[in-house]
Amino acid sequence: VEWRGGAPFVVTPTTPIVATGAEARRIGRGLAALIGNTVDTTPQIVEAATEPAIALRIDPGAGHGPEGYALEVAASGVEVVASAPAGLFYGVQTLRQLLPARVEYGAALFRPLPIPAVRIADAPRFAWRGMMLDVARHFFGVPDVERVIDLMALHKLNRLHLHLSDDQGWRIEVPGRPELTRVGGRTQVGGGPGGFYTTEEYAGLVAYAAERFITVVPEIDLPGHTNAALASIPELNCDGRARAPYTGTNVGFSAVCVGTPATDAFVADVVAALAAFPGDMIHLGGDEVKELSAAEFATFVEGAQRVVEATGRTFVGWDDVSAAALTPGAVVQVWRPQVPAVARRVAQAVAEGASVVLSPSDRIYLDIKYDADTVLGLTWAGLNGVRDAYDWDPAALLAGVPEAAVLGVEGPLWAETLSTVSDIEFMSFPRLAGVAEIGWTPQTARSWTGYRARLGAFGPRWAALGVSFYRSPEVDWAPDGVE
Ligand code: TNX
Q1: Confidence band (pLDDT; 50, 70, 90) for 43?
Q2: Cβ(167) – ligand 1 distance below 6 Å
Q3: 376 C-beta closer than 6 A to ligand 1
Q4: Separation of 254 CA from ligand 1 center, angstroms?
Q5: Can 296 be counted among the known catalytic residues?
Q6: How large is the average pLDDT for residues 233-243?
Q7: Are 214 and 152 in contact (CB under 8 A)?
Q8: Section 356-370 average pLDDT
Q9: How do residues 191-225 score in pLDDT, each as one tens digit?
Q10: Exposed, middle or buried: residue 54 (CB in 10 Å: 0-12, 13-18, 19+)?
């Protein structure tokens, strides 16, 4: 970032957006909708302009990698250039963050919008910059997930991991297995109505995310965390008897019967259902299985991995799967780096060719309380303050796991204690902004003091968007709505 000083660019009701090609024009329409609140103040998308304009360009020779961009703001004009659409989209998100926070109010009367003169060249440090949403413990409907996707996009995150099944609920249709949603889809923690996504709704979410350059990573948790499936399909149990539905919050008590034709057919159907949607990865959980022997667990994971890989997708599992033999290219999502035995096994998996996504539970578990006064959330991993969530280096987290083996970072939001989108927002922000910055910014350019100041200035933008973020006392928050 190079602040150039001097006069800002000022967006007025007549400022055009210059964009050619379908993708640049689509991204331009998004920016136009942000700037304008009425037909009179919404910028026109044009092919060329003589007056000061905002130019959005995709130029395959622009450099900065597949997700990077360059942004230049001067009094005479704004230009965002990227070699691919994702980079152009991220450049526009940066432009959005440079615009006054009041641009986020959807109906406020138009006032000219200054953008400070600056030159930026930007590209992400990591390829996987994610959030996980647990829609199994409590179900969140399509509009709630779209809201999460919108907020992820503002923060340039690119992976939405959906935890689609657990003991308390099954949330996605599987062709030929209507019991899963008819029985397993009707429960949630605390006994509420639950719910599930129809195939059309889920496809709509995947497309909505893709329009914002976010790839959905679906997770069906196996072989444990499966009570909802065990209640729906009796044959998945070794005794052939359906389990009772479960709406509590214990973990580790359920597992499918390993090695039976019924279980193998079930895994095949589930993986085929997930592989029918656009995507590149399939997450099969693997966590907290207490009801199987070590041999049964390894047999299950190795078989499930083969089923996923046969579809051409990459297999992802929680760090528990490092107890099995993983194929090179498998992805291990690390949640317990603080447990020495887990850290050793993960390093071994990396030595054998696996890569990792880092979700340290004592840092970026978004469902862990901020401090002792937080009403929502859990405390089993301690307390995760705003600084805790930000102030760590992915390349230094685990011995034997160098930066090159780290695909990226993801903040998981488990939903035992969360039931509304406002609950989601409160636990996610500000901590998810820290995940985003860890994902983008080189370690040498990061500091808690710098981040803390920028976070304080970002509060009014969340407020304008109606995000019910936690005003942590660790940060000096700028006042809202008074620019
Ligand atoms: C552990 S993290 C779990 C989840 C819980 C979470 C609560 C992981 C792979 N398993 O089942 O929801 O803790 O923080």
Answers
A1: very high
A2: no
A3: no
A4: 14
A5: no
A6: 98
A7: yes
A8: 98
A9: 999 999 999 999 999 999 999 999 999 999 999 99
A10: buried
At residue 93's C-alpha, the angle toward residues 90 and 94, to 5°, is 90
Residue 221 Cα to ligand 1 midpoint, Å, equals 11
pLDDT score recorded for residue 372: 97
| Rounded CA separation 72/94 (Å) | 11
Q: DSSP secondary structure string, 90-110?
A: HHHHHHHHHS-GGGG-SSSPP
C-alpha to C-alpha distance for 21 and 415, rounded to whole angstroms: 41
Closest C-alpha residue for ligand 1 atom 7: 414
In short, whether 367's Cβ falls inside 6 Å of ligand 1 is: yes
Of 146, 288, 302, 309, the active-site residue reads: 288
Separation of CA 467 and ligand 1 centre (Å): 25
Tokens of 128: 């996987």
Confidence check: pLDDT of 286 > 90 = yes
- Report the nearest atom of ligand 1 relative to the CA of 137: 12
Q: Which two tokens stand for residue 352?
A: 């054998």
Question: Are the C-beta atoms of residues 93 and 125 closer than 8 Å to each other?
Answer: no
AA letter at 183: V
Query: For residues 390 and 474, what is the distance between their CA atoms, to the nearest angstrom?
Result: 12
- Residue 296 CB less than 6 A away from ligand 1: no
Q: What share of the chain is helix, strand, coil (3-state, %, to 5)?
A: 35, 20, 45
Output the residue whose Cα is nearest ligand 1's atom 5: 414
Nearest atom within ligand 1 for CA of residue 249: 12
Give this prediction's pTM.
0.98
pLDDT at 387: 98
Tell me the pLDDT of the chain averaged across its residues: 98
Return the half-sphere exposure (C-beta side, CA atoms, 13 A cut-off) of residue 222.
31
The answer, yes or no, to whether residue 51 has pLDDT greater than 90, is yes
Question: Which protein residue's CA is at the shortest distance from atom 11 of ligand 1?
Answer: 251
Atom of ligand 1 nearest to the CA of 166: 11
User: For the chain, how big is the Rg over CA atoms in Å?
Assistant: 23
Question: Which amino acid, residue 92?
Answer: V
With 90 as the cut, is the pLDDT of residue 483 above it?
no
Q: What tokens appear for 281 in the block?
A: 């990865």
Distance (Å) from CA 414 to ligand 1 centroid: 7
131 C-alpha vs ligand 1 centroid, how far in Å? Answer: 14
Query: At CA 274, angle to CA 271 and CA 276, rounded to 5?
Result: 110
Average pLDDT over residues 114-135: 98
Taking only the tens place, the pLDDT of each residue in 463-475 is 999 999 999 999 9
Q: What is the pLDDT of residues 304-348, one digit of tens each?
A: 999 999 999 999 999 999 999 999 999 999 999 999 999 999 999
